[in-house]
Amino acid sequence: MSTTPARRLIMGALLLAAAAAPFGAAAQRSEAGIPDLTGFWSRNVGPEDITFEPVPGDKAVPLARMHVDSKDAEEIVADQHDNQILQPWARDIVKRNADSEIALVHIVEADDACWPSGTPQMLNVREPVQFIQTKDKVTILYQRDHQVRHIYLNQKHSANPKPSWFGESVGRYEDGALIVDTIAIKTHKMSVVDNYGTPHTDKLHVIERYRPINDKDGKRIEVTLRIEDPGTFTTPWRALAFYRPNREQRFAEVVCAENNRSFDEGSTFGAMPEEKSPPF
Q1: Beta-carbon count within 10 A of 229 CB
Q2: How far apart are CA 168 and CA 157, in angstroms?
Q3: Chain centroid to CA 34: how far?
Q4: What proportions of the chain, in percent to the nearest 5, are helix, strand and coil?
């Protein structure tokens, strides 16, 4: 079928407009002070250790990994539990976890057992994440076990929010960053703050600041966290985490809960959740 020159011009203009739309939308977000978080991101794409990093200049710092002189050092995820941010009862737990790891008895983490990692520990999961930004909500999708987190924009917290794994998150955009304020994070033996099994109480309050930046290695998202829990910590403290663009800009198909494994009865986090009878 032939087309007239005018028709060809119109079709070409439409194609150009469609191709430019994502860039135009990104520009509008940038001009409005709304960060562009599109794409697939990952905490690390190499073999580096993933943990929260200290904020330069802060005296109160997150727990750091202990470097053990052992041929099995890479497998030992033990913390330096003498950190002064810990209340005594919490220090006892993380010391017990460290001793277990050094003895090569691995402390099972929530994602090992197909449980939600929750806030803020989900930031330490390697697998990619995607941010879906809409007018009233930011949805964070995680490849790990297809977990989903909802951040409601420009709203106040509920008067009596029901505790959940990711808590109740409300957010806003400020100076080119996404600010997320989270409370009502479920207290459970598998709901921990970091890679070292650090527990928390129902007073846990987490504020995250997601800001896209560029450095010598390219694009990344800088996440600054503020952690407060007077039942667990002696003082509020801050930490840093970073996302890089994931190598593959897509999610892989992942199944966790149907991988029917089991853990020893006395393990820190217990057995994997399992359907005991058919739901239909």
Answers
A1: 22
A2: 7
A3: 20
A4: 20, 25, 55
Helices (H), the chain: 5-31, 88-102
- b/e per residue 236-273 (b: at least 16 CB within 10 A): ebbbbbbbbbbeeeebeeeebeeeeeeeeeebbbeebe
Assess whether the previous peptide bond of 120 is cis (omega < 30° from 0): yes
What residues contact 44, with CB distance under 8 A and at least 6 apart? 50, 126, 244
Neighbours of 184 (CB within 10 A): 19
> Rounded distance, CA 152 to CA 135, Å?
10
Task: Go through 46-83 and write b for each residue having 16 or more CB atoms within 10 A of its CB, e for each that does not.
Answer: eeeebbbeebeeeebbbbbbbebeeeeeeebbbbebeb
What confidence score (pLDDT) does residue 278 get?
Answer: 79
CB-count exposure of residue 207 (10 Å: 0-12, 13-18, 19+): middle
Residues comprising the chain, all counted: 280
- Collapse the DSSP code of 18 into the 3-class scheme (helix H, G, I; strand E, B; otherwise coil) and give the result: helix
Tell me if the pTM is above 0.85.
Answer: no
Which residue numbers in the chain have pLDDT < 50? 1-2, 9-28, 47, 263-269
pLDDT at 22: 45
Max CA separation in the chain (angstroms)? 81
Provide the residue ranges of all domains of the chain, joining segments of one domain with +: 40-67+74-245
pLDDT of residue 10: 47
pLDDT of residue 48: 52
**Which residue type is seen at 264?**
D
- Phi, psi (5° rounding) for residue 210? -95, 120
**How does pLDDT run across 203-226, given as a tens digit for each residue?**
999 999 999 999 888 899 999 999
Cα-to-chain-centroid distance, residue 41 = 11
